[in-house]
Design a protein that fits this description.
About 35% of the residues lie in helices and about 20% in strands. By secondary structure, it is of the alpha/beta class. The protein has one domain: Alpha-Beta Barrel (TIM Barrel), CATH 3.20.20. The strands form four sheets. The chain has an eight-stranded parallel β-barrel, surrounded by five helices. A two-stranded antiparallel sheet has the order 4-7. A two-stranded antiparallel ribbon has the order 5-6. β1, α1 and β2 form a beta-alpha-beta unit. The chain is globular, with a radius of gyration of 19 Å. The N and C termini lie far apart (about 50 Å). The relative contact order is 0.12. The N terminus is likely disordered.
Length: about 325
């Protein structure tokens, strides 16, 4: 008798208890799109190979990341691996259209040419076109999760309600398995969750070791509606990313204010007292909340991948969590 095709979640690294829970650790592919600086092909290949070898089976990308560069690279680098063994998520809400070709995309923080640019389109037609073009760039016949990307940044005439209705229709048609919204705005995510339409949210920076605004409404709403949470930006743009917090640490992509530097250093000191490091705490902290299934980390090199795998596997003493109040 022929066996059924395995659910990729079943074979994913660190699968948590519960039906079809997403894996704890995912690979964020913004670096494959040359965020902040060029990622060499050697770095990109090494990072994806190390992720696979380390058991990571969930990969997240978006058209926004390097105006298609991340999707093309990720799809090519995943091509050697069995498709049924991994999950891929990408995003909709912005279409890629011809650009002037007279410079780069560093205004959007990506080191790529501006021969392609983004154009907001959250209509059903735009979302279906974006999905189809992402599949072409990825070289895949499906993605597993499709997020509406940063709807709060879209011009006012664009409707999240219309976009969610389009995603629901595509899920009903079997084009995608899970639909969701990705944002750094907890209020926008809470509104999306309370529609009862979505399966998952990608929450950027709103529940971290340093601050937890999502705890008030968003995460309780996710538990109420059975919506899984994928946490990203768990280092708050860098302030929690190193064992020792430097004066030049970044928070929300700017210079960290003094009060947050002081708090991060207090947390780093507590970690050191217990034989672990600040980034270990930052990665594991969100996963202690029952609504949060996964942490997705941006990774540029094989060394970064291996280090993050070691960090998520680090055993944190319960006494330390108690001291932190977690």
């Amino acid at each position: 008798m022929e066996s059924a095709t395995p659910d990729p979640v079943e074979s994913a690294r660190h699968r948590r208890p519960g039906p079809a829970r997403l894996p704890e650790l995912g690979f964020g592919a913004a670096q494959l799109g040359n965020i902040f600086r060029v990622t060499t092909q050697e770095e990109a290949r090494g990072a994806v190979e190390a992720a696979w070898e380390g058991g990571i089976r969930m990969y997240d990308t978006a058209p926004h990341y390097g105006v298609g560069t991340s999707e093309r690279r990720l799809g090519a680098l995943l091509a050697p691996y069995p498709r049924e063994e991994y999950l891929v998520s990408t995003k909709v809400g912005r279409l890629l259209v011809p650009g002037p070709g007279d410079g780069d995309d560093m205004d959007n923080e990506f080191a790529v040419p501006n021969d392609v640019v983004r154009e907001w389109d959250m209509t059903e037609e735009g979302i279906r076109r974006s999905h189809a073009e992402s599949l072409e760039r990825l070289g895949l016949d499906r993605v597993d999760i499709l997020y509406l990307h940063d709807p709060e940044e879209a011009p006012q005439e664009h409707s999240m309600d219309e976009a969610l209705a389009a995603l629901v229709a595509m899920r009903d048609e079997g084009l995608i398995s899970r639909i969701g919204v990705g944002s750094k705005d907890a209020d926008v995510l809470t509104r999306a969750v309370r529609t009862g339409l979505i399966d998952v949210v990608m929450m950027s920076g709103r529940y971290t070791l340093l601050e937890q605004p999502a705890a008030a409404e968003l995460l309780p709403a996710c538990l109420e509606h059975g919506v899984e949470v994928v946490a990203v930006s768990v280092f708050n743009s860098g302030i929690l990313s190193r064992p020792v917090v430097p004066d030049t640490a970044k928070y929300e992509y700017g210079d960290a204010p003094e009060d947050l530097l002081q708090r991060a250093r207090e947390l780093a000191g507590l970690a050191q007292e217990h034989g672990v490091e600040l980034p270990d705490l930052a990665i594991r902290y969100p996963l202690r909340h029952p609504a949060i299934s996964s942490v997705v980390l941006g990774m540029r090199t094989a060394d970064q991948v291996r280090q993050n795998i070691e960090r998520i596997d680090q055993v944190i003493p319960e006494e330390l969590w108690e001291q932190i109040g977690a």
